[in-house]
Write a sequence for this structure.
């Protein structure tokens, strides 16, 4: 995958031109400082306009970026004592979901998240972050443990979706996702969910129910992949760009619809442009929200979580007269 | 059962009666149909009297939510809930989508992809939800989610067991993430009815896949399914494209999931009413024995 976005190209070209002019300027034969200053102003404006107006499709590209920090990057850079725990105690261990115990600031917690690879070999090993039922069941096992020990849960979301495979279906992918969602609606400890990359449909939601759902600015979260949507609605996968812009999958749109609680700002151009800054932002957001949630009793947590999801929907109530006609 | 079939015959499914005088070719054709599975030529009335089950090969044809309601309830006991909740176009997909909704409302005499309300079955009050595949493929948007939530919440409030018959291809794509979130809120309501100690029974019919399968459909205390219904999370085409091979015959059918341990029983349609009634009476045998229907 290219590390340069289509929309970034004019900016990169402009920056290249500025560098060339500077070199000429340095020879001292002509004074280009006025031109350079003008181009620099232009570049600054362009930068703000490019990154301030990223489309849904641009966001999909950033969210899928090969260098974008993954769950393990956050576990290693935000948490201490991360201790990975394996297996669903039923059948196997799913490498597409990493899970374990860790500490953020001083607080012990249960953590899990989808794990994508950064290159082909790792991606194959991680099944591109697409969980099998065992992944959801491993998360469920750890959530029950979190509840027993009163540990809060932090969940990282980054998956193209649940794995569409024969064995996955055979082992009850639908049941695994449903049971995990059901469990999360009632678990008696705080849950903070962070969408760090791609939130792919049911495979994401299976571990994404939370008291607080945070979303990195350039992450996407969608009911269906843009490619899948284009194929179904218009029978044309090349219309994925159009689908991405129609599906309302950006952090701003989801905040507006009341489906995510907070947007976490990213460095200009994406989380990968300055990972240290990204880790700092995410760490602060997790600790702030965990602190806040720790003040709620288990009963309050469950009730508030129910009410939070209860209102997610857009419909209208027609008058009886209207229905008659 | 016999009385029920008599009643079905008497009331008559909503199909034109054969003209007793002279039948034109068109009229004749209007009275006959072919089994979608074995191609047997059947009288429409025969097929409808048999609840859509082919007398030759037992293939279960899709029936409407209204037909299913007749099949699973006592006559004239149904009270519809939340008919006035209507889908919007929250992401601005446009006029074409709104027109499709309007067309499906006319076609199905429903206002969205699930019919909900209360009725009795063999005298026992229950809350019932029935999905309609002909309404936007039974897709789940905000209205489906809201109706399922209200159904389960009212069941808890009135101390009624709840039954949901599913038929859905998954999410209502035009509602984007609002649609996905219906999986979470319906599941949250299922947890509540579980905690209230009231039975929640699901009946999976063809097809029950994706978001509906992965939420309230598979979360029943008892999960029943009709024969050969397609059930699963990912669609067969997506799986075949991913793994680049053909799926084995019978993959993702109710019989397949019965064998894999994900559903309790495969129940042929003519036996569904009796099976459901028995299960409800057994599950309600304890704490609901003296409970009056408060509604
Ligand atoms: Zn037949």
């Amino acid at each position: 995958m290219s590390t340069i976005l289509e929309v970034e190209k004019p900016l990169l070209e402009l920056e290249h031109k500025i560098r060339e002019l500077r070199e000429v300027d340095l020879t001292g034969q002509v004074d280009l400082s006025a031109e350079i200053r003008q181009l620099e102003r232009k570049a600054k404006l362009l930068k703000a306009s490019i990154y301030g107006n990223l489309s849904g499709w641009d966001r999909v590209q950033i969210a899928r970026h090969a260098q974008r920090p993954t769950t393990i990057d956050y576990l290693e850079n935000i948490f201490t004592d991360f201790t990975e725990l394996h297996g669903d105690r039923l059948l196997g261990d799913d490498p597409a979901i990493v899970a374990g115990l860790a500490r953020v600031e001083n607080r012990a917690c249960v953590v899990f998240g989808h794990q994508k690879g950064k290159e082909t070999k790792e991606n194959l090993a991680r099944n591109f972050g697409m969980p099998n039922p065992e992944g959801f069941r491993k998360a469920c096992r750890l959530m029950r443990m979190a509840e027993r020990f009163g540990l809060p849960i932090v969940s990282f979301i980054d998956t193209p979706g649940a794995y569409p495979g024969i064995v996955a279906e055979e082992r009850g992918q639908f049941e695994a996702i449903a049971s995990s969602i059901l469990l999360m609606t009632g678990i008696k400890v705080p849950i903070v969910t962070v969408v760090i990359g791609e939130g792919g449909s049911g495979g994401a939601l299976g571990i994404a129910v939370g008291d607080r759902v945070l979303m990195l600015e350039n992450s996407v979260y969608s009911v269906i992949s843009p490619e899948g949507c284009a194929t179904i609605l218009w029978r044309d996968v090349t219309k994925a760009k159009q689908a991405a812009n129609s599906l309302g999958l950006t952090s701003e749109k989801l905040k507006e619809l009341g489906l995510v609680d907070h947007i976490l700002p990213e460095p200009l151009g994406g989380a990968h442009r300055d990972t240290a800054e990204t880790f700092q932002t995410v760490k602060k957001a997790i600790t702030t929200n965990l602190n806040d949630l720790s003040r709620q009793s288990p009963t309050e947590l469950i009730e508030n979580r129910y009410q939070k999801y209860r209102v997610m929907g857009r419909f209208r109530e027609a008058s009886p007269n209207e229905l008659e006609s | 059962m016999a009385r029920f079939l008599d009643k079905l015959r008497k009331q008559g499914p909503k199909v034109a009666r054969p003209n007793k005088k002279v039948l034109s070719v068109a009229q004749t054709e209007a009275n006959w149909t072919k089994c979608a599975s074995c191609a047997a030529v059947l009288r429409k009335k025969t097929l409808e009297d048999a609840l859509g089950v082919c007398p030759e090969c037992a293939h279960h044809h899709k029936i409407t939510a209204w037909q299913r309601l007749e099949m699973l309830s006592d006559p004239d006991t149904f009270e519809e809930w939340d008919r006035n909740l209507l889908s919007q176009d929250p992401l601005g997909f446009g006029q074409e989508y709104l027109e499709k909704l309007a067309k499906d409302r006319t076609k199905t005499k429903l206002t969205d992809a699930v019919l909900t309300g209360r009725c009795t079955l063999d005298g026992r009050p229950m809350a019932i939800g029935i999905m309609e595949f002909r309404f936007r493929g039974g897709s789940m948007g905000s209205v489906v989610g809201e109706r399922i939530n209200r159904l389960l919440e009212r069941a808890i409030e009135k101390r009624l067991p709840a039954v949901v018959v599913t038929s859905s291809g998954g999410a209502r794509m035009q509602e984007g993430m609002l649609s996905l979130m219906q999986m979470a809120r319906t599941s949250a309501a299922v947890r509540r009815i579980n905690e209230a100690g009231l039975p929640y029974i699901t009946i999976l019919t063809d097809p029950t896949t994706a978001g509906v399968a992965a939420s309230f459909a598979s979360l029943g205390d008892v999960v029943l399914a009709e024969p050969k219904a397609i059930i699963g999370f990912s669609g067969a085409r997506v799986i075949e494209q991913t793994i680049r091979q053909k799926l084995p015959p019978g993959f993702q059918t109710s019989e397949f999931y019965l064998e894999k341990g994900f559903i309790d029983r495969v129940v042929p349609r003519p036996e569904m009413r009796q099976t459901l009634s028995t299960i409800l009476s057994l599950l309600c045998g304890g704490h609901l024995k003296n409970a009056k229907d408060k509604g």
